[in-house]
Design a protein that fits this description.
5-stranded mixed sheet; about 850 residues; mainly beta; about 0% helix; Maltoporin, Chain A; 35-stranded mixed sheet; 51 strands
């Protein structure tokens, strides 16, 4: 069998499954549960809302929402149901949902503040304002977890959002930069690594209610970012017990018609239900991952990154009364990776190994008080990380790639304790309607550990030694930090077709020793009758959270750099480069108050957002968004050789700019059928020597000159199509995932590993990327409660050449040649639903 057409036979149990499917018996059409989540335009839950379900040929059902805005319905008959929602102080709304046998459904209804007291008919129409300044990109598990990518965690779902891609090394890139400039919150609690600011291993997708990707939200409740907020809400166990087993059997590697061992094993199990009906609910999702990820630019069997991990998330929900609700969660995610991101230029011996122990526990209380809801939450988090190497040999960098062993090992333990308080008030009528919300947080974090670096040798043409970078390792480090924030915001519905969001956020981080004020303003306007068109605009100031790695920089190993001549002799004694934490040398701001001392950084971004949205019908909704974000005061590093002492300095003088034009269309055929088409035109430019490339888990060995250029994840054009479409043949569901985008830019290098020309310019880009994937799914009901879900998935169906690597060194004989590609391939799979 040609390698380009090798079919990975994911499951070998087809005869038994076919026999089980052949003895199915007919069952009455009774659906699972329906959960209605009712929120206001600030994403705050609305307690006490009346939710009524109506359907032809069935009795009406009615519930009131709890303090979390949730109303649950069980044992509803299949078919179309109209959901009508009313709440005091809000306009009524109606939606339609289609219920399917044996499956649970969810619907989210946003209510707008009421502008008058006259009675109105509840009709299904587009609300005038759903969020004033910017519309969320919202992902639901039912929409995404059966896509061809088969996402297992929240991170896996994010590339479905315009502006978020995976880079050449597989890491997430958000608006052209890494995740350290964005925030991820789960139930409002920060879950990023306190040391690096990265997302880490996020929770299983089976545990989530929604994923809201807010690209520049103009609500003051969100902070600690200059790019994007990923806000995750987890789901509770339902009114009936439900379990799901996915990917239960291993995937075997088949090469040239021969079985060549185990490729991966990724079973996922979810169990949830009522421990005490109407009182206590339980849900737990667990995933085991054994993955030997092959790399097409290296020969088998020396081309694999080997990962073993467990990812578990458990949630308990306790309803104390109609006005009080308590939630406790625990996230546990240990993992070990050997051979991190190998490729042609970094074979297995030159790659690091990585291990992690991540624990995160939260307890939150939601209490209906004083005509509003008080939310209190405490979270405790710990990251234990170790980075190792495959051996103790020096690392060698040549024009043809790396050799030897990875140079930098480390061990660290970071922790965070966070206390959040928030108060959402009931609607207040004064010159319109106001929805006030305020809150605060107190956060303490720490980071301790040690580094051990080994020499790095740089060779040029003819295997001539050009430079050696040796290191003087320093004693272990320990740093701690404290942060206090407060915010207040108001959603003001000044007229039935006009609303404003305004507010401010105040932040103080002890290590940065300054006070930051972040004002924000957004407006939404429906200019024409029918409210099918909404125009939005917003402007705000945002501040990056400074991870603790920045303040451990002066504990990183000291560099001793020796240059060599053509005869192989050193040109002089080693140059010693001390690690120095500089100051904020960027522009001053009226909104920042503090001392100009070392480490007083305030990376910030000013963002403008313009948006137009129109609902052509119930089936089609189109949105256009223009975003312009300019950031200054970013923390960058550079070598300073002008003074009497050589230094590598972290300064606060970096800047960047991100511009994006997005057009997204959503075709909604029915509840479980939709197609999302998005096109983005964007530019991402900035300083290349950002701190994350030198600090963090896998630091770079070299300090090149800082250059302002295209960022490595700059993607000028991207077209993305994905969704779910039901076929009339045998009840098969088709799930396409098609992506076309510009190729990433890359940096051309000279034989000494320095930049050759302008790095990451438009002249040095990978070829355009195109991938057409599709999955066909058939759900076979064994009974009303049990089912088997069969699927076949095709990847890169057009067999398009998508280059994985390029020979980018001018001294490389193959300079400029692109190579590596994942050919067309198939996968068979099935899941168990019960």
């Amino acid at each position: 069998m040609p390698k380009s057409h090798t079919a990975t036979l994911r499951r070998a149990w087809w005869p038994a499954i076919a026999l089980a499917a052949g003895v199915l018996r007919a069952q009455s059409c009774v659906s699972g549960e329906l959960r209605a989540l009712v929120v206001d335009s600030q994403e705050s839950p609305i307690p006490g809302a009346a939710v009524r379900l109506e359907s032809e040929g069935a009795a009406a059902e009615a519930r009131s929402t709890e303090v979390t805005g949730v109303a649950d319905f069980q044992k509803l008959s299949c078919g179309l149901w109209k959901v009508k929602v009313e709440a005091e102080g809000f306009d009524a709304a109606a939606r339609t949902v289609e219920l399917t046998a044996g499956l649970s459904s969810e619907i989210r209804v946003i209510l707008n503040p009421k502008m008058h007291t006259d009675s109105v008919e509840v009709t299904e129409a587009a609300p005038a304002v759903e969020q004033s300044a910017s519309e969320n990109n919202q992902l639901h598990p039912a929409e995404v977890k059966t896509l061809p990518t088969n996402p297992g965690t929240v991170n896996d779902t994010l590339p479905l959002v315009p502006g978020i891609v995976r880079g050449q090394n597989g890491e997430l890139k958000i608006n052209g930069t890494g995740p350290e400039r964005s925030a991820m919150v789960v139930n409002q609690s920060d879950i990023t690594d306190p040391a690096t600011g990265n997302f880490g291993q996020s929770i299983p997708v089976d545990s989530i209610e929604t994923v809201n990707v807010l690209q520049m939200p103009f609500l003051a409740q969100y902070g600690r970012f200059t790019q994007t907020v990923v806000a995750v809400e987890t789901r509770r166990g339902g009114e009936s017990w439900h379990a799901e087993l996915k990917d239960p059997f291993p995937d075997f590697r088949v090469r040239s018609w021969r079985l060549r061992g185990l490729r991966n094993e990724t079973p996922r199990f979810t169990l949830g239900g009522p421990v005490a009906r109407n009182r206590l609910y339980f849900i737990s999702s667990a995933q085991y991952i054994l993955d030997k990820d092959p790399v097409r630019t290296l020969p088998f069997p020396f081309n694999e990154s080997k990962k073993e991990a467990v990812n578990s998330f458990t949630q308990l929900d306790w309803i104390l009364s109609a006005k009080q609700f308590v939630t406790a969660t625990f996230h546990f995610s240990p993992q070990h990776v050997n051979f991190v991101n190998p490729d042609f230029f970094h074979p297995q011996p030159a790659t690091p190994s990585y291990r992690q122990q991540n624990y995160n526990g939260t307890a939150s209380d939601h209490w209906g008080l004083w005509r509003g809801v008080v939310d209190s939450s405490v979270s405790m988090q710990r990251f234990d990380v170790g980075v190792g190497a495959q051996g103790g040999a020096p690392m060698q960098l040549t024009p043809e790639g790396a050799a030897g062993n990875f140079f930098g090992t480390q061990n660290r333990s970071a922790s965070r304790t966070e206390w959040l308080e928030g108060w959402s008030l009931a609607p207040i009528h004064a010159l319109g309607t106001h929805l006030f919300k305020m809150g605060s947080s107190v956060t303490g974090s720490s980071d301790e550990g040690s580094f051990q670096y080994r020499p790095v040798d740089i060779y040029g043409s003819g295997n001539a030694l050009l430079q050696r970078i040796a290191f003087f390792n320093l004693p272990a480090f320990s740093r701690s930090d404290a942060e206090v924030t407060a915010f207040a915001q108001d959603h003001w519905a000044a007229a039935p077709k006009l609303a404003f969001d305004y507010g401010a956020r105040v932040e103080h981080q002890r290590l940065a020793q300054n006070l930051r004020v972040a004002p924000r303003l957004g407006v939404a306007w429906s200019p024409w009758a029918g409210q099918a068109t909404v125009l939005r605009a917003g402007y705000g100031l945002f501040y990056d959270h400074l991870p603790l790695d920045i303040y451990t920089f002066n504990h990183y190993p000291v560099r001793l750099v020796t240059d060599y001549g053509p005869d192989g002799a050193p040109l002089g004694p080693p140059a010693v480069y001390l690690n120095t934490i500089g100051s904020a040398t960027g522009p001053h701001s009226f909104f920042i108050h503090g001392q100009q001392i070392a480490g007083a950084f305030s990376p910030r971004g000013a963002t403008m957002n313009l948006q137009a949205e129109h609902r052509f019908s119930r089936l089609l909704r189109v949105r256009g968004v223009y975003t312009d974000s300019q950031s200054v005061g970013l923390v960058v590093f550079e070598a300073d050789t002008l003074g009497s002492t050589n230094e590598i300095v972290l300064n606060g003088n970096g800047k960047s700019r991100y511009q994006q034009l997005e057009i997204t269309g959503r075709v909604s055929l029915s509840k479980d059928q939709q197609l999302i088409v998005s096109y983005t035109h964007s530019r991402a430019r900035g300083n290349l020597n950002t701190y994350d490339s030198f600090l963090g888990n896998f630091p770079t060995a070299l300090v090149r000159n800082d250059v302002y250029s295209n960022l490595p994840a700059d993607v000028p054009n991207r077209l993305l199509v994905w969704g779910q479409v039901n076929s009339p043949v045998w009840g098969i569901q088709a799930l396409p995932a098609v992506e076309f985008r510009s190729g990433f830019p890359y940096a051309a290098l000279d034989q000494g590993q320095g930049y050759a020309g302008i790095p990451y310019s438009d002249a040095t880009r990978f070829p355009s990327f195109f991938s057409a994937d599709a999955r066909l799914v058939k759900l076979v009901r064994v009974s009303a409660k049990y089912g088997l879900r069969f699927s076949v998935t095709g990847f890169n169906l057009t067999n398009h050449f998508n280059a994985l690597a390029v020979h980018a060194n001018e001294a490389d004989p193959q300079y400029g040649v692109f190579f590596g590609n994942y050919h067309r391939r198939y996968r068979l799979d099935f899941d168990v639903v019960f």
